[in-house]
# Entry
Amino acid sequence: MAHRKFTLTKKLALLIMVASIVSGVIFLTLQKITDDLLEGYLSSDEYYHEESARYIQKFSKYVSENELSTSDRKAFGEWVKKENYINLTIFKDQELQYDSIYSESDYGKEKLTQYAQNHSHPVKFRDGEGRVIIDGFYSSRYYNLAFTLDLLGATLIFLIIVLFGIRQSLRYLKTIHQEIHILEGGELDYEMTIKGHDELAMIAKSIEDLRKAFLDKLKAIEELQAESRSLVTEMSHDMRTPLTSLIMNLEFAKKEGGEAGTSKDRYVANAYDKALQLKSLSDNLFAYFLLEREYEADLETVAVKEVIYDLISDQIAILHQEHFRVHISGELPETYINVNLEELGRVFDNVMSNLFKYADPEEEISITFVSDQDIFEIHVSNMIKLADITPESNGLGERSIARMMSRMQGQFHSIQKNSKYYIVLRFWNTKM
# Structure
């Protein structure tokens, strides 16, 4: 079903229109209420007379303090301007002396009427007593104040409606921001929240589509890698059978060979060495890609002194049989480590296999145990046979060791300096 696109601009325009209508109605309602209240109180005769009397007293005080006469019209004008919303009229000797509305041409000509006589008040000036009339729009200031308050109230309502209306969009924007951070953290299975059909929803949908496309790419890559690993593993496995037969045939050829030192014997010997090299490469390749297909290793806590001692003893006995000299330094600590016994055995098998192939039997092999409160390390160093430097440089054996050590939460490091080879197997101590 196709949805009508309701953009943020349209939403905001509609929100402002609704807020304007509501705040306008509230403003008119408040004005009506305040006008009725003010009208009921400020339009009474009692209020008018009270205000007039108050202004008469105020004007009388102003005249006394400044010692004004009825002819000081400039001072009267300043006072009227200062007080605002009033009209001032002054009579003396039945003649008009000042009026804040009329022009000066009427001064001295306009006579005191009976109405003015009844509504005027006596005020003492410097040049004698005069009659003063003060008419004022006393309620105007209150009406203006009420108008301002009504306008502020309506404006506040307008802002509240607008802010409340855009709060939902701001919340959604915050949700999108938080979900992007979740995806940045690697949680690619987390689905984006898609609400509505505006620009924010379009952004969320685009991110969601990107997430799905990325997951599909990762899945395709993983399937391709799994297929490649499976193919290499199967090929490595298939290679082992004919290689084994080839090695057996070459061994028979060596045993049944004719005259020693002939070219045929050399060819058979070289072919036999190459067959052993290919088998070693096939075994390493098979072991490496087999690790790729395995799940997380099951670890168990074992005593270093027991497990490492058994493994080292077996390997050293084999080295001695092959006429290698081994020097051991350091002691096995009374600590515990987390390992997988099967993979730990494979690690030592790989290490010893490398020693058989590359270590110089004329030089001593050094095995050192190093430990502290946090770690237990096995350091192995040997000199390299010069004749065996070139045959195999693929590094699958080392990578297999590193992979198995990593699966056991350990570390593997190797260094080759000139003709000396040095490795470190590092384990982290744990509590039983």
User: Anything to note?
Assistant: Residues 288 and 400 are 5 Å apart (CA to CA). The chain is about 60% helix and 15% strand. The radius of gyration is 53 Å.
